[in-house]
Design a protein that fits this description.
Elements: H1 6-15, H2 19-25, E1 32-35, H3 37-43, E2 52-55, H4 59-70, E3 73-77, E4 82-86, E5 91-96, E6 98-101, E7 110-113, H5 116-121, E8 130-133, E9 142-144, H6 148-154, E10 156-157, H7 164-167, H8 170-182, E11 185-186, H9 188-199, H10 208-219, H11 224-233, H12 236-240, H13 248-257, H14 264-271, H15 278-287, H16 292-303, H17 305-314, H18 318-325, H19 330-338, H20 342-350, H21 361-366, H22 373-387, H23 394-406
Parallel strand pairs: 2-5, 10-11
Antiparallel strand pairs: 1-2, 1-8, 3-4, 4-5, 6-7, 8-9
Length: 407
């Protein structure tokens, strides 16, 4: 693959969302480079989801200047020589070019300022070790480590050195994420190194929250199932949790039911966790540092499917479908429906969950119902009548609610 014209790449960057704003915010700063996946994506004709920049100088000062121009703020992370710039319309990361060393396998790196060449050689894969000059003093330059162009053309993922996965085992999860997202394949030696690192227990040297962060990123990928399947093939999934096993058939059926506001990656993860009981799964996700709301969605979808499927299969009226579903999230209903009662699950997901009462608790109390459990009982009865087509108006809802309270 012949390196493209750097000026054309810079112009392409300026047309991406926030690209022109970033260039303006950093105007006047010397030795600024766009690096990593953003350059890779531009070279592939894609729009980078994130912009990572490095500066051969004072990154914190550059970040403060950029934040002032954007009317935003900069957050400096001294340990790693990085800063995050947040403006009203754009945010980006800015780091000093640096080298990294690892005191022990799996530890966070110790960093030290270095030149651009050293910064590129610390990166995870050759296709991410490319830098595009942005500031006037380096404009027109495109720097890359050896084999970067060949690997990009061949759509290969190759680590930069043999200890890469041992130094930072989270790269094992990045390997499967990038492979699934980009349609790239691990280079032969890289795949061997990945399997060897897993077999040597590399995953166990990393803290739970760091692994959880990478797993959560995997669930946000466009092709989370493909990423998780590759993780299983390489042994990464089993190293994370021995019972973690992707189920393509179940996942595909559940994803076919999932509405647009559902989280596809959480459904994929849940269908891979069905071998775990609620306590085991909840404890594992806790150790990974999953946010409580996300954890509960995965646990419900992974462990409540059979019971929900049975309840949905027995439901004969819309109100019974609603009772069967209860307060479960759409992801859990999709998995439950995928286990058998697809029509009932689809009816809930596409129609019934959007139905709302016209009356509220204040209407019942205004009609003489005392505040307390009877209000909730009346509203539940009104909703059942509305779902079953027996209360098509506000007045009919109120009558159904009052009748239930008086019985």
């Amino acid at each position: 693959m012949e390196p493209p014209d750097p000026a054309a790449l810079r112009d392409r960057l300026a047309t991406t969302p926030g690209g022109a704003t970033v260039l303006e915010a950093l105007a006047g700063t010397r030795a600024v480079w766009l690096v990593g996946g953003a350059v890779r994506d531009l070279l592939l004709g894609e729009t980078p989801p994130d912009l990572d920049l490095v500066v051969e100088g004072d990154a914190a000062a550059a970040a403060r200047t950029a934040a002032e121009r954007l009317g935003g703020e900069s957050v400096v992370h001294d340990r790693f020589g990085t800063a995050t710039v947040r403006g009203e319309a754009v945010s980006f990361d800015l780091a000093v070019t640096r080298s990294e060393t690892y005191a022990v396998p799996g530890a966070l790196p110790d960093v030290a300022p270095a030149d651009l060449r050293a910064d590129l050689t610390r990166r995870d894969f050759t296709v991410n070790a490319i830098a595009l000059g942005l500031s006037p003093d380096v404009a027109g330059r495109l720097e890359a480590i050896p084999q970067a162009w060949e690997d990009l053309a061949a759509r290969r993922l190759r680590v930069l050195h043999a200890a890469s996965f041992t130094d930072d085992p989270t790269r094992l999860l990045r390997l499967v994420r990038y492979a699934a997202r980009l349609g790239f394949a691990p280079e032969t030696e890289t795949e061997r190194l990945a399997r060897a690192a897993v077999a040597d227990g590399a995953i166990q040297t990393v803290s739970g929250p760091r692994l959880g962060s990478e797993l959560l990123l995997l669930t946000t990928e466009p092709a989370p199932l493909a990423a998780l399947e590759l993780a299983a093939t390489l042994g990464v999934a089993g190293a994370l949790e021995p019972r973690l096993a992707p189920d393509r058939d179940l996942a595909d059926r559940a994803l076919a039911l999932l509405p647009g506001d559902g989280r596809r990656g959480l459904v994929v993860l849940a269908t891979a966790c069905t071998r775990m009981d609620r306590v085991t799964l909840s404890g594992w996700l806790d150790r990974l540092g999953f946010p409580a709301s996300t954890r509960e969605v995965v646990v419900a979808a992974a462990t409540e499917g059979p019971a929900l499927a049975a309840a949905l299969a027995a439901a004969t009226r819309p109100s019974e479908i609603a009772v069967a579903v209860g307060r479960r999230p759409p992801e859990a209903v999709a998995v439950g429906g995928a286990l058998g009662p697809e029509p009932a699950a689809r009816t809930w997901l596409d129609e019934l969950r959007h139905i709302r009462l016209e009356i509220g608790g204040e209407d019942l109390m205004g009609a003489g119902v005392p505040e307390g459990p009877d209000v909730g009982r009346g509203l539940a009865a009104a909703l059942a009548a509305r779902l079953d087509g027996a209360a098509a108006s506000r007045e009919a809802e109120l009558q159904a609610a009052l009748a239930a309270v008086r019985d």
